[in-house]
Ribosomal RNA small subunit methyltransferase G (Pseudothermotoga thermarum DSM 5069), 225 residues
Amino acid sequence: MILKEILEKTYNLHLSQDTLQTIDKYLRLLLEAPLNLTSIDDYNEAVHKHVADVLLPIKSLTGNLLDVGTGAGIPGLILVIVFPIKATLLDSSKKKIFWLNDTIKKLNLSNINTVATRAEDYAKQAREKFDVVTARAVAEVRILLELCAAFAKVGGLLYFYKGPNWKEEYKACVNIERILNVRLKEVIDYQLATGEKRSLIIFEKVGPTDPKFPRRYNQILKKPL
């Protein structure tokens, strides 16, 4: 199996046969999807950039996870296949969520559900309910913090998958961390075999988030905290 070979020989990632088969089926469904869910159309490239990218920086994961702006289900769907967690995939696109619902059924996954709405709206009913909140290829760090902080329990973690430009983005977050009661906990740097330098930026929720956050998305863009 190509997936097994790349993950084991290139990244030293060892998964069970059942897990590999589920991920393989997911990737094939993704590459065949009628929607423009990914710019990648090569299976091997998808293994590197959709699977290895998600799994390399995370050694273990438990609890209840929310994936904000999930798109095709990355990273949330990959993580729920590999780790013993429950997950909610959130996206404002009903078409993407419809595809995800169909895909989840085909993969026979039961510990996952989806929500088709904006993060600002979902925050009204799901504040401080999640142990881990993830986001990948959604927005710059300051925007992600405001969109995601309210969902995390106090003591919970925010996992943002970013490229090397995260350091420039983080310069705008000094006030935001204080206002939202989050702090930068850890940065895990890694590199894909295809050359891309990547970082997993981990924030910890250290106190409750004011109920007025997150604001509407256009306000977040126009009026940085």
Q: What stands out?
A: The domain at 61-222 is CATH 3.40.50.150 (Rossmann fold). Residues 39 and 131 are 30 Å apart (CA to CA).
